[in-house]
Amino acid sequence: MNRVKFGPTNLLVSPIGLGCMSMSGCYGAQDDNECIATLHEAIDRGINLFDTSSNYGEGHNHELIGRAIKGRREQVVIHSKLGTVKKDGKSVAGTPEHIRASTEGALKRLGIDCLDVICISRVDPNLPVEEQVGGMAQMVKEGKTRHIAISKEATPELLDRAWKVHPVVALQDEYSLFVREPEDELLAACKQHGMAFMAFAPLGRGILAGLFAAASGVAKDDRRAKDSRYTKGNLEHNLSIVANLERIAREKGVAVATLALAWVINQSGRNGGVVIPIPSSKSRKHLRENAAAAALSLSAEDLARIEKVCPPDAVAA
User: Fold this and answer.
1) Residues 183, 161: contact at Cβ < 8 Å?
2) Looking at the predicted structure, is the pLDDT value of residue 222 above 70?
3) What is the pLDDT of residues 233-248, one digit of tens each?
4) Top-level CATH class of 4-209+264-297?
5) Active-site position among 27, 56, 175, 230
6) Domain regions of the chain by residue span
């Protein structure tokens, strides 16, 4: 698998990453052994960018990845979000104390000496962004991480302020055929700063992977049940879009998930910056479908057909 430059760093990463959230029960039951086998196959296939968080499984995710990369640390780039904690009824994401505790806890659970990237899970509205970036920059100074990043709630103005404190190498936010808001401003801001854009939920939280049917809907205990894209009426409409995408995918001889991820990867050239999807997989089967996107060539005609089937305002939410 080829490599792309990860923002303003010397890190070279695969054009598609692996989101590890579903390996810790966020989307239903999972099997640790299958998850480790999936992590190993990802490395063997050339996927070297792993996205994790201190919040995933309350540390389980880090421990799982730590088991999987033992003896293979130099083959992967670990991007770890710092998660959030509750304090005095507020969600705390960016205090220096939380940043330190989360970073040091991640290192211990992963069994490594230094993270490649730490990332605020969301910009903390209770603190100046400068203070939050400063807390992460201190971890760089102490050798506990190589780089820092930001996820969610960021704006171009906040990124400008953050960069005055320390280089921010990546921004992570939701982006897929079904969620197009980053195209308005965030992709341009990343290009301006030379940052990588990491697209989480690039399969619409599963719907673009063909995981749902209108008849069965979403289980009540599935966190996606609260997502308006999955409610009755909206789900049927959105699945009709997926059905049209599946027709294009079949012509290409690939799964609809592969097509949808290849579209995200292609936004790199279109918008000038580097866009890296990080679909979540907890099985080798889904990993293989996702990994195939890195090799799928989409022509200008293909991209136009996909846009016609799923323009920015097509999704019911």
Assistant:
1) no
2) no
3) 888 899 999 999 999 9
4) alpha beta
5) 56
6) 4-209+264-297
